[in-house]
Write a structure and sequence with these properties.
Elements (H helix, E strand, L loop, with lengths): L2 H22 L1 E8 L4 H17 L5 E8 L4 H13 L5 E5 L1 H8 L8 E6 L20 E5 L4 H12 L3 E7 H6 L1 H9 L5 E7 L15 E4 L7 H13 L4 E3 L3 H5 L4 E2 L5 H17 L19 E3 H7 L5 H5 L2 E3 L11 H11 L1 H22 L4 E10 L2 H6 L7 E14 L1 H68 L5 H36 L15 H4 L4 H8 L2 H18 L1 H22 L5 E15 L17 E9 L7 H67 L5 H36 L8 H18 L1
Parallel strand pairs: 1-2, 1-3, 3-4, 4-5, 6-7, 6-8, 8-9, 11-12
Antiparallel strand pairs: 10-11, 13-14, 14-15, 15-16
Helix pairs in contact: 2-10, 3-4, 13-16, 14-16, 16-17, 16-21, 16-23, 19-20, 20-22, 20-23, 20-24, 21-22, 22-23
Length: 782
């Protein structure tokens, strides 16, 4: 053969081979869906991802999607069109109606996978001896949405009597097997079908006697309309089962048995079927995918609390819980909690009474220097011998009245007592302020502890949920031969360990709620609703930008501490109490000195009047005048000068001097402790502020890494140890991030308490003045 011919053959070969390779490596899949709604879009997208991931290297996959719009005849027509289209290699149906239409065909010119069969027994689909369909080019997968078993489990949980099944009008009319299936299982309760068309109001169509609702996708309703519908069910205390999964639970439904990973698992099974067909296996020989494993329920705890129905413990024990810390009712903010504790707390009420008592003591002390007037009356019956002995001055029966007067003109003890009582009342007022600050600190700490416990509970619950997802994935991989039973066992072990952590978090959340209720003087067991997401830095940490400026410079951090120490001298109630105590001792000392040489002077007087004097016996032999019939009185000035009291005054003076020294040292000790506390808390706040950003970045990176490894695990590119490690790191960093946030808020509140005032509780004008002082202090110090 000549060189020219060889060259021409090579050229022709190079032109023909790519075309042949291209034709052999292209896979065209036709997808028939019941409708263009969210659930089918999610399933279709997941199916494409799984098929593309499992196709062999170098293969190219194309997809052609059509929808039957809930019309059985249209679905059949689309199937025939796909059969006639030479570009379609494999057909996949998504949805009860389309899959039923595929299952009822007489023959299958091309491979057809009916991926959403309602019920194999009801629809009388064949199962061959090799567990395949036994029908050439046909296989089916039973739906992961198990209407029959879900209905029975729903009844076992809530034991209802009248169930409303809410479903689209089109599927009710076009797909009779649904109503046949659900009616056949309604032993012990009534079933009322409520077909919904368009955007009509669903709640208006419900019978008045229903006590449970089984909800299919409301395909023509918007999210707000769906949320309003579930809100109405919850208000009427009607539990609801959503067949489509957790999306409707996020809108307010009570329960679902359709886990999140069901779409991925079904898509994975379809993709595996596609891969086997691609390698030449007839669908009739591929085992039917019928999943019979027990699925844990997913429970919306917020809805459960609203309908005020508690399922059996066995249900919740294995359930995936959503909104575990979501409490229905008016949400309690930190400011509202502070207002309640200042009004209702028993310790605060007791201290307020002590302040009122101290104020009354001042009034009592002042009364001693005001005129003291006393009126009295006496009626006396005397014996005969006493009358005779009185020599005509007393009668046998006498009624007399008396009045006395005392007016202090000068008394160092009385004046000092008034001054000391005023200082004591002032001291009690400062103590009252101290108690108020402590109450604000306590309730803020308890409130933030509740928020932290709530966040921790949510993190632990999400961790259990994630572990369940991974367990479902491991089971699916084990069933399809991609994974081993050891992975399933490992995830089962992790699930139980994570549930232990969840139980601990639940108890700590309840304990934190009890602690806050005790401070609020509310029923200890009552529930407290808190916001799902609240940025306390906006309402608590004032001047956040200024603080960020301080914390990025160590010198400025110390200046911030200096500013707080200066503020403490003006506002600290503990310091004010010591200063008041010092004034009390000073006044006692001055009183003791003055009493050494200053007398007590008082005006005294008395008046008497006899109203009745009977049986007077006068002795005529003696010149004794009869007793007066008019008023008798006296008026005088009393002067008291202590001469000798056994050295008491001198000793009291010495004692006062000792007390002065003691208070001075107590003041110095207090100032050292408060300043140390302020400076330490500022450093702690500086550290926790910097940890905020670092921990959030770590948590985000850990979550991103977990998602990557989870996806790799689903594709077989990562092992179970890598995924468990990534999940544990994600959970730990989330906990660290939420702890850093709440710790920063707590550090700020503790620092403000040492300052002697909570600036975030001030009026707007006072807050502005505080900010001005803060900025001016920095500028002056520089």
């Amino acid at each position: 053969m000549s060189i020219t011919k060889i060259f021409l053959i090579i050229i022709i070969g190079l032109l023909i081979i790519p075309t042949t390779i291209q034709a052999q490596s292209t896979l065209n899949i036709g997808i028939l869906k019941d409708a263009d709604i969210n659930e089918f879009e999610l399933l279709s997208n997941q199916l494409k991802l799984e098929i593309e991931a499992l196709t062999e290297s170098g293969d190219r996959v194309t997809f052609q999607e059509v929808t039957s719009a809930w019309d059985y005849e249209v679905a059949t027509q689309h199937l025939q069109t796909f059969f006639s289209d030479p570009n379609i290699d494999i057909i996949v149906t998504l949805g009860f109606l389309s899959s039923d239409a595929a299952a009822n065909l007489s023959s299958y010119p091309k491979p057809v996978i009916a991926s959403t069969i309602l019920d194999q027994e009801l629809q009388k689909l064949p199962v061959g001896t090799d567990q395949g369909s036994g029908i050439d080019n046909f296989s089916y997968i039973e739906s992961w949405i198990r209407l029959k078993s879900d209905l029975l489990d729903f009844h076992n949980v809530f034991n209802f009597k009248h169930l409303a099944i809410i479903l689209p009008q089109a599927i009710y009319e076009q797909f009779a097997p649904i109503s046949q299936l659900l009616k056949s299982e309604s032993d012990g309760f009534d079933v009322i079908f409520v077909p919904v068309e368009g955007k009509e109001q669903v709640s208006s169509k419900l019978p008045s006697n229903i006590d449970a609702a089984y909800v299919f996708p409301l395909i023509r309703h918007s999210q707000p309309e769906i949320e309003d519908f579930f809100a109405e069910l919850n208000n009427q205390q009607i539990p609801s089962l959503a067949i489509t999964g957790i999306r409707y639970l996020e809108h307010g439904a009570t329960l679902t048995f359709t886990p999140q990973f069901s779409l991925q698992q079904m898509a994975r099974q379809v993709a595996l079927h596609v891969g086997k067909v691609r390698r030449g296996t007839n669908l009739a020989q591929i085992p039917i995918a019928i999943n019979r494993e027990i699925r844990p329920p997913v429970v919306n705890m917020e809805s459960l609390r609203k309908i005020d129905q508690v399922p059996r413990w066995e249900v919740l024990e294995d359930a995936i819980l959503m909104n575990v810390a979501k409490i229905p009712g008016e949400e309690l903010s930190l400011r509202h909690a502070i207002a309640i504790v200042l009004e209702n707390n028993l310790k605060g009420k007791i201290t307020n009474q002590d302040l009122l008592i101290a104020q009354k003591d001042v009034r009592i002390a002042q009364s001693t220097i005001l005129p003291q007037i006393e009126l009295s009356g006496t009626g006396a019956q005397l014996s005969q011998n006493l009358v005779e002995a009185s020599m005509g001055q007393k009668g046998e029966f006498t009624v007399t009245g008396s009045a006395s007067l005392k007016q202090v003109i000068y008394s160092e003890a009385a004046f000092a007592n008034i001054a000391i009582k005023k200082l004591a009342a002032e001291n009690m007022e400062q103590y009252n302020k101290q108690v108020t600050l402590d109450l604000v600190l306590d309730v803020s700490t308890a409130y933030i502890a509740l928020l932290f416990a709530k966040s921790n509970l949510q993190i632990k619950n999400e961790n259990v949920y994630t572990t369940l997802q991974n367990l479902e994935m491991a089971k699916s991989k084990e069933e399809t031969g991609e994974g081993s039973v050891s992975d399933v066992n490992r995830w089962t072990s992790e699930l139980n360990l994570n549930k232990i952590d969840l139980n601990d978090a639940q108890s700590k959340y309840k304990s934190a709620m009890y602690q806050l209720n005790e401070l609020l003087n509310a029923p200890i067991s009552s529930s407290i609703a808190t916001p799902d997401s609240v940025d306390l830095t906006e309402t608590i940490v004032l001047n956040q930008k200024v603080l960020a400026w301080y914390f990025n410079n160590s010198n400025l951090t110390e200046k911030y501490a200096d500013f707080l120490v200066d503020e403490m001298y003006k506002y600290s109630p503990e310091l004010q109490q010591l200063q008041t105590a010092s004034k009390i001792v000073d006044r006692q000392k001055s009183m003791q000195i003055r009493q050494l040489f200053l007398p007590e002077v008082a005006l005294i007087g008395n008046a008497d009047q006899a109203f009745v004097r009977e049986g007077v016996i006068a002795n005529p032999q003696l010149p004794v005048p009869p007793p007066p019939d008019d008023i008798t009185w006296n008026l005088g000035l009393r002067l008291i000068i202590p001469i000798f009291e056994g050295g008491r005054k001198k000793t009291e003076l010495q004692r006062s001097e000792i007390e002065q020294d003691k208070i001075a040292w107590q003041k110095e000790d207090l100032l050292n402790k408060i300043e140390k506390g302020i400076r330490s808390n500022v450093q702690l706040m500086n550290a926790s502020y910097k940890e905020l950003d670092l921990s959030q970045k770590a948590a985000q990176a850990a979550e991103d890494n977990f998602r990557l490894i989870q996806n790799a695990y689903s594709l077989g590119a990562a092992n179970v140890i890598q995924l468990i490690d990534a999940q544990n790191v994600m959970t730990r960093t989330k906990h660290m991030a939420t702890n850093a946030y709440h710790q920063y808020i707590l550090d700020f509140i503790h620092t403000e308490r040492l300052q002697g005032k909570f600036s975030f509780l001030d009026a707007d004008m006072e807050r502005d003045m505080y900010t001005s002082r803060l900025l001016n202090y920095l500028n002056e110090e520089e």
